[in-house]
Amino acid sequence: MCHTLRTLSLSGCRRLTDEAVMNVSHLLSLETLNLEGCRCLTDRSLVATSGLFNLRVLDISQCDLITDAGLDHLEGLENLEELSLGWCRSISNRGLDTLTMHPGRVAWLRVLRLARCNITDNGVEYLGRLLSLEELDLSGCVAIGSAAVGRALEKVGEGHGAVMKCMIGDASFASFELDAANHLESLIIYLVANLLLYFFISPYRCCISRLLTCHTALESCKNSLVHHLRFYTNCVAFSFHLSLSLERSLSFPP
Fold this sequence. Notes:
Shape: globular
Structural class: alpha/beta
């Protein structure tokens, strides 16, 4: 059975060690390996997975001890289509530079999750090399700005013309450039505070209004934001008229 096993999930096994991952490194048929939340794992685990050449999905999110050096060992996994590195706070620009230069990344990597990684605008620029990217999660990356995100999305969009799903945090959203949404099918914005309060903070209010009235904005994006605005305003005693007013002000023109 082990010789035909394609999916292995050890998610949430917080006491799992590098030795345990080494013990499954002979499962060469694996296509999906989920190690999310295995907080004791280090770069040695990525050394152990470096021979799993059939891997298409690898999730090492919330593995706090994984570093940039560990990503070097993913070079031989040319068929990776989905890679999750969220909450790996030791992953930085250097790691992204290395990762995006690996063989097969341009052609195959479609999903990359980097939530809460320690990356800046320079690191985001490297993502423009991933011309097959369809989904990108940068939520919680507080050191990145919308301009860098926009440039990376533009390069990816020019590379294959596919629409993308992008997740960003409120730090990037405050100055999000509408041109950056041209290649997006959906834009998911994670806000760490009450969205109603953001509407009364000038940079956020202007961005929400411009995004929802721009011809490039999608109906799904508009409906999502209006729904949340309605939810938060309905939590306020005097909010009924305010909610209607906000919804009308954020509606698309006919």
